[in-house]
């Protein structure tokens, strides 16, 4: 929340914050989840490619990442 409105910085900061969180046990398959962060799920898709409104009609957004710029 930002009393002056949401900025691009706000959005990118929250994405970064979310991707740098450690993975919860229920998000992993198998016993090896020590030190894994959500950003690790991106694999080779490390470039931010954009954001779009979710297709399911919910009040959420989809993040898109690419292997190259």
Task: Please provide a written account of the structure.
This protein has one domain. It has one helix at 8-19, and strands at 47-53, 61-66. The model has no long low-confidence stretch (mean pLDDT 87). By secondary structure, the chain is α+β, with helices and mostly antiparallel strands. It is globular, with a radius of gyration of 14 Å. It starts with 7 loop residues before the first helix and ends with a strand.
Name the quaternary structure. Answer: single chain
Instruction: List the secondary-structure elements in sequence, H or E.
Output: HEE
Query: What number of structural domains do the residues give?
Result: 1
User: Helicity, in percent?
Assistant: 10-25%
> What would you call the shape?
globular
The spatial strand order of the largest sheet comes to 1-2
Task: Indicate the proportion of strand residues.
Answer: 15-25%
Please describe the biggest sheet, giving its number of strands, its sense, and whether it closes into a barrel.
2 strands, antiparallel
- Report the structural category: alpha+beta
Rounded mean pLDDT score: 87
Gyration radius from CA atoms, angstroms:
14 Å
- What is the end-to-end distance? 30 Å
Per DSSP, the total helix count is 1
User: What's the number of extended β-strand segments?
Assistant: 2
